[in-house]
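Could someone model fe (ii) ion with this protein?
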Amino acid sequence: MDVRSCGINLNHWYVVAQSQEITTKPKEVKLWYNSIVLYRDSMGKIHALDNRCPHRQVKLSEGKVLENSLECAYHGWQFNGEGNCTFIPYLNPEFSCSNSNNKALPKIKIESYPVQEFDGFVWIFLGDKKLLNSDKNQTMSIPEWDHLNYIATVSVIDCQAHFSFLIENLMDMYHGHLHDDYQAWTDANLKELLTTEEEVKGIYEAKSYYKIDKIWSISQLFFPSFRSLHPESLMVNYCYPHWQSTLGKDFTIYCLLCPISLTHTKAYLIHFTSLNAFWRLHKLPRWFRQFIKDKLYGTAQTMLDGLVAQDIIMIEQEQQAYEQKIRKPTYEINPTIPAVQKMIKKQVKDECNPDILRRGDRENFII
Ligand code: FES
Ligand SMILES: [Fe+2]
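Reply:
Sure, complex below.
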């Protein structure tokens, strides 16, 4: 099996949006050849439906939300959060002009998907609903999101490449070379590689450029001369289908995957800077600590976006070389790469569900 043509195991929760993006205006999101419409009802609850009106197949995301229902833009059919058609204007008995057709509402239902909001993100499950609550199929926990000691920055990755190229990039810490001024670490040396059914974990020894131990340490983000190299442990963990990393005690990064197709991958990179070293800060009132957390949100934006832009160039070139069928020999020296490739293949092989894949309906999907 060629890893670049592997699908995803849909029996996991995937992130399709940030919470703040979803309002009472319907929004289209995509996950593995599926177009999904998300909206909030009048109570603020998020619903996820197949983004296709069963009348003429137009996108329901063109419509609007009325109380708890989603109304199609074309003829005004309405659907509730469970996907049941609840109203067709033409059949409304109260609509008593001579053209009206006083028939009962037909039983029409479109697919609705389990959806939940956690830690600032919207998670969707497109897999086998019988497996929904199994221990293996939980959303990835991000305790730093609400913790007052962590400052978050989010960068969206959108690349024209198979998701395996992104995961390999995230597991291969030998590529610090690429990142010039944005480089957070150097001299990585893989010390341990641990694999389980659901995880590939690499533990590197490295040197970090940043140390968050003084209140002005944040200035290291902007001025390279304030940085000084010191040894730190660098851990990367592919917890299928997502990824997490720590650099010493100061930094934690998550990458929440949303593969869209074989050649298009979206993901959310969330970077946390720890303020744990500042014990005096913890004595301040909660509201003030929340104020600081909110004020400092996005502090690492330039660095994170810069890293992402550099990585995307490399990842997309790998995809292009793959598509051009350049069959020159390649040499891999990092054992994390074959380990994640094995995991990706195993996930598809073990839990592939033909019903789910059929629903992907690749022919009609506009990427
Ligand atoms: S196409 Fe949606 S109501 Fe007609
Ligand atoms: Fe990178």
